[in-house]
């Protein structure tokens, strides 16, 4: 049956042409992009897998750069340590020659050559850096990013190669020392507090007590106890016996045993009538145990005034509303430098770390004082505008009553510096036959240190280079794998394109024929 309303042949031809055109678009996309999966709509699963792998490839390319940089850092350290080893070998030859019976002039010439080699080694150590990293200074290790590990659940973790530093510095050890007033972080004050003597508390070292009241009757003994604990220079200890005061002032380093002995001596020197020589017992541990002084009357009573028994300490106190400004000099502060203020009867010390400024020091000291909750003490900080040159200020204020502040306890110290791994070079001498003998033993140890460093760096560099080769192979393999999943087969696409183009032409002709069929119906009405 023919119909002028429905052209089934035309509908079939049109759908066929649409399918051909869709296939043609797909093939043309493959040819133009080179990929059979270029977006998530082409194949969502393959696109997701390839995209994750592609990001991994890019990450591994970055890792390759990191490994190359790490290899360069270690390579510089290895080359430097090998050169240092060579110079130490030259130095050993000089030291061996100094084992002979030489005159002073010859030894001086050898010493000059040794010193020159030592200077060369120091210069190499200082110059052996790449991108700011020097593996011949310090002991902290560095980490080189080696890989990214992707677990089955998709989580990613980094893997590093750890390279240990080998200290080959030639500096001798430097002990901690008080900062000079020109040093960065020097702590000082222009303020002053007049010290006053106050009685020691019953819990403090050197506090004196007795059960004796009034005179010491004939044949009886009064015992005076000095409490165990630390005492300070300037502390004063007084006993009133025989109608007179006998006082001793502590000096630096003394203990309650020293004070007890000095009081016994002073009392005995007073030749008090009817009083036997002073006795008593020392403390087994003067920081923990008590010491005693015994006074015995013999022949008649001896006057004793228990109210005259006193032990005092010198205290600097800020009166209510008074302030003291502590200045912390600007400049570069070294890790390990220490800064101390004394308040409330205790010292508070802040230790610097890498990168701190005097502003950080002031803030650190304030934090320590605030944490101590010292009664009546308020602490404020005024930062330096430029910590490299200007001073920061720590202000201590008495607020609500007097507060003990010991300005003489202010201190700042430069950190101790440990000797470098080749620090013995600083004292290496062949000036005498004895020195030369010692130097021979020393140079063997130094050679061992340098050889171990070169070996360590060589092993690390080989490991890094091996990892770099593996990562590059991994990148190539992953790239090939991604290509096999998403890249188009251009030969097949080309052949398919030609076939589809022919099908498209035929489809167009078939649609034209189908569309022409209704025209034949007109002949039926002629």
Please provide a brief summary of the model:
This protein is an alpha+beta fold and 526 residues long. It has helices spanning 8-33, 44-97, 104-127, 256-269, 358-372, 433-486, 490-520; strands at residues 142-150, 156-163, 177-178, 187-188, 196-199, 208-210, 221-226, 236-241, 244-249, 291-296, 310-315, 317-318, 323-328, 338-343, 346-351, 377-382, 392-398, 403-404, 411-414. It has a 4-stranded antiparallel sheet with strand order 3-19-14-15, with helices on one face. Strands 4-13-17-16 form a 4-stranded antiparallel sheet, covered by helices on one side. The chain has a 4-stranded antiparallel sheet with strand order 5-11-8-9, covered by helices on one side.
């Amino acid at each position: 049956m023919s119909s002028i309303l429905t052209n089934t042949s035309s509908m079939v031809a049109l759908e066929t042409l649409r399918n051909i055109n869709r296939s043609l678009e797909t093939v043309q996309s493959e040819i133009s992009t080179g990929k059979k999966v270029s977006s998530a709509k082409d194949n969502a699963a393959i696109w997701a897998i390839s995209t994750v792998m592609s990001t991994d490839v890019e990450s591994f390319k970055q890792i390759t750069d990191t490994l190359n940089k790490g290899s360069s850092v270690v390579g510089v350290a290895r080359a430097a340590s090998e050169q240092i080893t060579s110079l130490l070998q030259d130095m050993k030859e000089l030291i061996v020659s100094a084992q002979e019976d030489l005159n002073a002039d010859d030894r001086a010439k050898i010493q000059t050559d040794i010193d020159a080699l030592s200077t060369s080694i120091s210069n190499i150590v200082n110059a052996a850096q790449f991108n700011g990293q020097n593996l011949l200074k310090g002991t902290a290790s560095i980490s080189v990013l080696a890989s990214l590990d992707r677990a089955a659940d998709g989580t990613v973790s980094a893997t590093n190669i750890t390279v240990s530093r080998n200290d080959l510095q030639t500096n001798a050890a430097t002990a901690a020392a008080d900062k000079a007033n020109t040093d960065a972080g020097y702590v000082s004050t222009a303020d002053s507090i007049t010290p006053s003597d106050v009685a020691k508390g019953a819990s403090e070292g050197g506090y004196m007590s007795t059960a004796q009241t009034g005179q010491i009757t004939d044949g009886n003994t009064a015992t005076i106890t000095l409490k165990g604990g630390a005492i300070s220079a300037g502390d004063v200890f007084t006993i009133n016996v025989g109608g007179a005061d006998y006082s001793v002032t502590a000096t630096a380093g003394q203990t309650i045993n020293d004070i007890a002995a000095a009081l016994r001596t002073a009392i005995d020197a007073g030749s008090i009538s009817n009083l036997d020589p002073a006795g008593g017992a020392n403390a087994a541990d003067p920081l923990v145990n008590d010491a005693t002084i015994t006074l015995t009357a013999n022949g008649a009573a001896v006057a004793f005034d228990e109210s005259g028994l006193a032990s005092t300490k010198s205290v600097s106190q800020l009166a209510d509303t008074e302030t003291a400004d502590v200045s912390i000099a600007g400049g570069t502060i070294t890790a390990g430098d220490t800064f101390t203020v004394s308040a409330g009867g205790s010292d508070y010390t802040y230790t610097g770390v890498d990168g701190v400024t005097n502003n950080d020091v002031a803030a650190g000291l304030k934090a320590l004082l605030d944490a101590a909750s010292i009664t009546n003490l308020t602490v404020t900080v005024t930062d330096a505008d430029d910590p490299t040159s200007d001073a920061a200020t720590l202000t201590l204020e008495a607020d609500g009553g007097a507060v003990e502040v010991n300005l003489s306890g202010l201190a700042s110290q430069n950190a101790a510096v440990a000797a470098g791994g080749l620090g013995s070079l600083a004292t290496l001498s062949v000036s005498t036959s004895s020195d030369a003998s010692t130097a021979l033993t020393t140079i063997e140890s130094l050679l061992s240190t340098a050889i171990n460093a070169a070996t360590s760096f060589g092993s690390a560099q080989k490991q890094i280079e091996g990892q770099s080769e593996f990562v590059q192979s991994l990148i190539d393999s992953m790239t090939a794998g991604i290509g096999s999943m998403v890249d188009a087969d251009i030969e097949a696409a080309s052949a398919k394109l030609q076939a589809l183009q022919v099908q498209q032409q035929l489809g167009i002709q078939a649609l034209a024929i189908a569309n022409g069929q209704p025209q034949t119906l007109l002949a039926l009405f002629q």
